[in-house]
Amino acid sequence: MLVPLSWLREYCDPELDVLGVEERLTMTGTKVEAIHHHGVSSPERFVVGRVLAAEQHPDADRLKVCQVDLGDDAGAPASIVCGAPNVAAGQTVAVARPGAVMPDGSELQRVELRGVPSEGMILAEQELAIGPGGDGIIVLDDLTPDAEFAPGTPLADVLPIATDVLELEVTPNRPDCLAVYGVARELHAATGAPLGSPPWEQDPGSPGPVTAAEVTVECPDLCPRFTARVFENVTVAPSPLWLKARLSAAGQRPINNVVDITNYVMLLAGQPLHAFDLDRVAGARLTVRRAHDGEQMQTLDGQTRTLDGEMVVIDDADGPTSIAGLMGGARSEVALDTTRVLLEVATWNGPNIHRSSAALGLRSEASSRFEKGLQPEQCLQAQAVATRLMIELCGATVAPGTIDVGSPPPPPQVLRLREERVRAILGVPVARERQEQILNALDFATRRTDDGLDVTVPALRRADVTREVDLIEEVARMDGLERLPATLPARRGAAGRLTHAQRVRREAEDALVGRGLHEIVGWSFADPELLDRLRLPADDQMRRVIAVENPLSEGQSILRPTLLSSLLDAARQNVSRNGPDVSIFESGTVYRAPREGELADEHHALGALLSGRLAPRSWRDAGAEADFFSAKALLAALLDRFHIDWSVQQGSWPFLHPGRAAAVMAREERLGFIGELHPLVAGSWDLERTAVFAVDLGKLAAAAPAVVSFAELASVPSLRQDLAVTMPAGVLAGEVLERVRAAAGEMLEDVDVFDVYTGEQVGEGRRSLALTLTFRARDRTLTDEDVAPLRERIVAALGERGGELRG
């Protein structure tokens, strides 16, 4: 929200400069996002002038040469060339002198126009950024006919030509701060500066029935309160300059006095309004109802909107004339010939307005306020301010009575604020007198009790302040959060240590960082097209996705079922920016919809992706490329860190390369998968050969021993022997190693494959595996005779799978 500082100071002026105001508001929770300057930058170069003469330019039909008295001591008038059609001798005008900095940042210079010198500019509204203006200049005599301004009078004394503007970031729970008076109340509580009377304190209107119009509300659950007043003898015209200037500084475009009043009151009181031309309301009767599916209407922006049954419309005898809380209809808008106005101020259901706004793609200043939840009491506050302005600025006559449809608002809530509880929560005591002062400044009513205060919550804070701790927050932020000492919370016996699963997660992430991988943090949302791009069949468990009810976009409308979603997107981003070598990992949650009778599968996973070279290219080494085995080596470094008895078993996934994919097992528990991406999947993300793995960190933590036992180092040497066997090509190396371990028994300390050979010497359909066997006994040094029986058992065990000892 944009709040002109000059407007704010009318209700609360703490005698601080703009930076002081910004600091106090930000430190009390009403964050000032930015400070802008609206209008001119050097007010001293803008003065009042009097046109002494206005003669036709000798060389231009549309220009006049004016002699303007600027109040200079020398008495010589300034020659100014002006192109405005309404400039004339005798006028009191606004003038910018040479050296003046205009609102667009340009500096005014002495110039010659068609051979005639011009020593300044006679100004129009748009040149001062106080309104849209037109072709004519500002004539001060027309604005203030009863006042006389001497030439040379600073223009800032006559017109609001410059102000600082605060851009506020208002949190959704504080719609009361989407109003100038609401911000003034915050500033009053934060600084102690006096607060002006509420602008709705005096109401020229009256209660009672209205004979000229009728209103029916058919959906009171979506419209808790609807008020309306009728104004006769309305003169629609441009707004006065002070109103235009104020709206322009607040980011609103002035239109005419009636529409400008509704915008002005909304900015001041925080309650949106809407003005109907009563003569264009068919039947002089409005009905608030749910829209019909497919119903259409044209809004003020000229677009035709298609509605659904969850939206609320205001209609008359000819159909919908306004979308409730969002925008009025073109059919009943106020025009220059309007003489009778029906002014509507209503309260709408916030979630319904938010839903309708999103469904229609239509956001407005009104909807941004209604969706945060306004209170019924605000209706008549806005009516009071608007009624006074309609009388003053439009010459209107307010008809007797006020249409007021709705249930009485709920009674105010009374909360107990205990002095001891304030001290316990904040860590320091706050005097009861100070608590009263703060809460009263924020419009809370208080009454002292034995242990604290009974606090009555004002209507504007009804939805925000519901508990004692909310009152403590109000006291803390106004007393000064920055003054609270740093204290530790009560521990109450808490151990304060990480769980086993948390330690495993951190150590796993550290292990991958230590291997040179970069961590990414991706969205938990994913594109539904991900499922097809991963080539998942209809019955795959990864297709059990959870849909987001209110997605940010279609591309983020499901929760990701796998970390591949963000890993692949991040890899493509790097490759598209000339970073073909990618080594990344992510630790995050994945989601899958529940089967019937089960809970949703929501677990923390760890995934890694390798693509391109694993190390930088050098003059003597081109660098190894990422493949299945480089990913397996990385996985081994990760799992061996936790002393997990793990293995890989052949498996297949639609998104992995056939024959280059495996399941990661911890005994009988599947932890995840490892493999190279299927070429079609890799190509869908513009990647070349890419290896990935992903494991369930919860299962990994369960498989990792909480306490690792260390065995005493052996004092005797080991015995190493090499063994070469030929095996059928279909027998996996992992199975060979398992058979070797089972046959050799406890004396075999380690076994590994150090060479693989295929060719004519081993025959077609076979391959040779070279194994390194390491034997050790705890009590003696082994000899060849000791391990010969073990070697024979190993050969026999491999022979059961077609293995033969090679030459």
Characterize the structure shown.
- The termini are far apart.
- Helix 6 (257-269) runs antiparallel to helix 9 (378-394), helix 13 crosses helix 18 and helix 19 packs across helix 20.
- The strands form 10 sheets. Strands 26-29-30-34-33-32-31 form a 7-stranded mixed β-sheet, sandwiched between helices. It has a 5-stranded antiparallel β-sheet with strand order 5-4-3-6-9, with no helix packed on it. A 5-stranded mixed β-sheet has the order 11-14-17-18-19, with no helix packed on it.
- It has 20 helices and 38 strands.
- It is of the alpha+beta class and 807 residues long.
- The model has no long low-confidence stretch (mean pLDDT 92).
Which whole number gives the mean pLDDT?
Answer: 92
Number of helices: 20
Q: How far do the termini sit from each other?
A: 86 Å
Widest beta sheet: strand line-up: 26-29-30-34-33-32-31
Looking at the structure, what is the overall shape? elongated
Q: Please bin the fraction of helical residues.
A: 25-40%
Main β-sheet, in a few words? 7 strands, mixed
Low-confidence stretches: none
Classification by helices and strands: alpha+beta
Report the β-strand fraction as a percent range. 25-35%
Count all strands and give the number. Answer: 38
Radius of gyration: 39 Å
Provide a compact summary of the structure.
The protein is of the alpha+beta class and 807 residues long. Helix content is 25%, strand content 27%.
